[in-house]
Design brief:
Elements (H helix, E strand, L loop, with lengths): L1 E2 L2 H14 L3 H4 L3 E6 L8 E7 L2 E7 L6 H5 L16 E6 L5 E6 L14 E3 L3 E6 L4 E6 L4 H4 L4 E5 L6 H14 L8 E7 L2 E8 L3 E3 L5 H13 L13 E3 L6
Length: 247
Amino acid sequence: MLLGIAAKRQKLLLANMSSGEGTSELLQPKIISMEVDDEDSYESEYRLQIGTQVKYLIINPRTYDRDTLSFPLASLPPLQYDATWTVAHISRSPSGTLRTSFSNCKFASIKSLWHPTTIDYFDLVKTEQLTAAAYEAMPSPALAPTLGTSPIIAKIARFEWEIPRLEQETRIYRLLSGSGLAPRFLGHIREGDRVIGFVLEKVAGRAAGVEDLEACREVLGRLHGMGVVHGDVNRLISLLGRGGEDY
């Protein structure tokens, strides 16, 4: 089942572009994810929203100072706000001139698609950032028949190099589906024509304490019995539900 209203928004954007109405407002880039190298020794990466499209920006080392890398939009050269490129690469020549190149890269996608529901990234409204890759979100009204109207948890691969980790997590959630050991998997998240993450139910509960050691050991034993090894077990990644569930 493919859900979402992003296609309608895309048609509206194209109509506005052709008429010149609202184009400058709609196409103002917005940073939705970034990975900045503090030492400026490696490339800094950005995920941009431009209209209803996601574009990627790579800035070479020694192109901008560290403060500018944290807020680069005002210092960028003009970008081509159209659908023909996916990555803009910005560098500086030996003489100090900014150089911009564009490419139409096809990024990797999560392949383990086992749930019938697929959700467009733009149909989730972020309400709280939880980690670099995970956030709490509200489904758009179009998703209410399937996802309801309560907050949910989304997790995405912000950049292509995070796809393998999300691929593995997607497979593990399939293995744990119906086991009671993990929150319910509600669907896959797509960005354009590729899948970059998933949506989970938001579970109310608390972090485990020392008094919950035996319960955590029991759950960990069940996970190991299913062939799943977490690799970084600590009390903060264990959640005790209000009904006594242990995730």
